[in-house]
From TrEMBL:
Keywords: Methyltransferase, Transferase. SUPFAM superfamilies: S-adenosyl-L-methionine-dependent methyltransferases (SSF53335). This is SAM-dependent methyltransferase. Pfam families: Methyltransf_11 (PF08241). It comes from the Bacteria. Residues 41-127 form the Methyltransferase type domain.
Length: 246
């Protein structure tokens, strides 16, 4: 099965309302990469990770299935954006010091992707894969959010999504020197911002395509009342794993 595209239709919302990743993640990752010539950010989306890598590598290649997502990515002199699948990338063998995949691995055909990683990494090069789980806000809001996520939206999530809940534990990672780490992202969001974040979910987009209306208003009144007029701290648990090509 090829990589699935679930994010083209909400590319503008995705660029605005999705989180980026904490500095601590890059502080953990980058010292373990043996070179600084070339990095590949696979399934780059709107280029969040590619832009960070551009500050550390001579050249960054950033690919995604979605031209709509790539259109939202910031231009940098040393980033080349292009459409490509994860499983068949247009690069020569032993080309990269680092390959990254953020919040996308669960959409890939893993055997083909892992073979591609082994082809494209230099010996000793690093592959790093990470994602983030369900947002947490407060004891009174979290049950409502979880019911929307795992109840209302459950029929509309692709089965691939559930790999996020177990932090990729069932997804193969056939590389050497495996390390794992956890981080957290904290943001200050209003209820309106949070509701727009929900509209970036692939399940919400799928629901709207099937039923012809947005499901988010069904949760909006109760969530907004519980949230209150100000901003709240939202927390996203981030998990990561790292390995090397021998």
């Amino acid at each position: 099965m090829p990589t699935l595209d679930r994010f083209s239709s909400q590319a503008e919302l995705y660029a605005r309302y999705r989180i980026d990743y904490p500095p601590e993640l890059y502080q953990w990752l980058l010292p373990q990469v043996p070179g600084r010539q070339r990095a590949w950010d696979c399934a780059t989306g709107n280029g969040q990770v590619a832009v960070v890598l551009a500050g550390h590598f001579q050249q960054v290649e950033a690919t995604d299935l979605s031209a709509s997502q790539l259109a939202q990515a910031p231009a940098r002199a040393n980033i080349t954006y292009q459409p490509s699948t994860a499983e068949h990338a247009p690069f020569p063998a032993s080309h990269f010091d680092l390959i990254t995949v953020a919040q996308a691995l669960h959409w890939f055909e893993l055997a083909a992707f892992n073979q591609e990683v082994n082809r494209l990494l230099r010996p000793g090069g690093v592959v790093a894969e990470w994602g983030y789980g369900l947002v947490q806000v407060s004891p009174e809001l979290d049950p409502l959010i979880r019911e929307f996520y795992a109840g209302t939206m459950r029929p509309y999530w692709d089965n691939n999504r559930w790999h996020i809940d177990d932090e990729y534990a069932r997804l193969p990672f056939p590389f050497a020197g495996v390390q794992q780490a956890r981080f957290a992202v904290h943001r200050q969001w209003s209820a309106e911002w949070f509701l727009n974040y929900l509209r970036t979910w692939s399940s919400v987009v799928k629901y709207e395509k099937q039923h012809g209306h947005d499901p988010v208003p069904g949760i909006a009144d109760e969530l907004t009342q519980l949230w209150g007029p100000g901003e709240r701290t939202v927390a996203f648990p981030v998990f990561a794993r790292l390995g090397r090509r021998e």
